[in-house]
Specification:
The structure is a single chain. The chain folds into 2 domains: 120 residues, Rossmann fold; 110 residues, LytTr DNA-binding domain (OB fold (Dihydrolipoamide Acetyltransferase, E2P), Beta Barrel), CATH 2.40.50.1020. Strands 2-1-3-4-5 form a 5-stranded parallel sheet. Strands 10-9-8-12-11 form a 5-stranded antiparallel sheet. A 3-stranded antiparallel sheet has the order 13-14-15, with no helix packed on it. The two termini are 36 Å apart. Helix content is 27%, strand content 35%. By secondary structure, the chain is an alpha/beta fold.
């Protein structure tokens, strides 16, 4: 069951979206808000797993609100403005739905949210749209993940046998939620490594067991933001 809350500064938009949600199976609207500050005061105390946020609001945008929401609660953005898409995707966002919202499009967003919520509990595989269609990938077979050079919204998964699978339209934040945290670590803004693929780790660099194009082993630079977390993993 998806238990959602709605935040939008326009009361008519709230009423319409709430009515739309109530016609969709396995979706329950817990509470609605038209003030971001009240929303942030209450969100940690509500039994919900999904937040539907309008982006354009006076005083505080949905993007700013999203940065203050716990990762355990998934986010769907709604907006009439397409120029926010790139910024929205960088956050822990399930989907970005353009207004006026259509029921069929909202159902698609809820289905993506449902997948991610399931993976929070069961993380031995990933099921997602890929370059070869909808695929199930065993996480134990993943060696390395990087942002696609063709489209930054996509992620290239390098399997332990060298095969490459492209996950379509998925942020690193959402992807990390789908992976077992004890087995994977983000190294920098564009790369995630399986712990089993690490041979040597230093202050600034990870040397992997993955062969690179020049015949050596692949080396990854550790971003400043991720050094503390990597140190904690290996100092346990």
């Amino acid at each position: 069951m998806i238990k959602c809350v709605i935040l939008d500064d326009e009361l008519l938009a709230i009423s319409y979206l709430k009515l739309l949600c109530e016609t969709i199976e396995n979706v329950e609207v817990i509470k609605v808000f038209n003030d971001p500050k009240i929303f942030l005061r209450e969100i940690n105390h509500l039994d919900c797993n999904l937040c539907i946020l309008d982006i354009e609001m006076p005083g505080m945008t949905g993007l700013q609100v999203a940065e203050l929401i716990p990762d355990s609660k998934k986010i769907i953005f709604t907006t009439a403005y397409k120029e926010y898409a790139a910024d929205a995707f960088d956050l822990n966002v399930v989907d970005y739905v353009r207004k006026p919202i259509k029921k069929e499009r909202l159902i698609q967003a809820f289905e993506k949210a449902q997948q991610l919520l399931i993976y929070q509990q069961k993380k031995d595989c990933i099921e997602w749209n890929t370059n070869i269609g909808k695929s199930t990938i065993l996480t134990e077979q993943i060696a390395y993940i990087k942002t696609s050079e063709i489209d930054s919204r996509d992620k290239d998964i390098i399997m332990k046998d060298g095969a490459i699978i492209v996950l379509k339209n998925l942020s690193f934040k959402s992807l990390l939620d789908m992976l077992p945290s004890k087995d994977f670590a983000q190294v920098n803004k564009k790369e995630i490594i399986a712990i089993s693929s690490i041979r040597v780790i230093s202050t600034n660099e990870v040397i992997t067991s993955i062969a690179s194009e020049n015949g050596n082993f692949l080396k990854l630079q550790i971003g400043e933001t991720y050094k503390t977390h990597l140190a904690e993993i290996f100092n346990k």
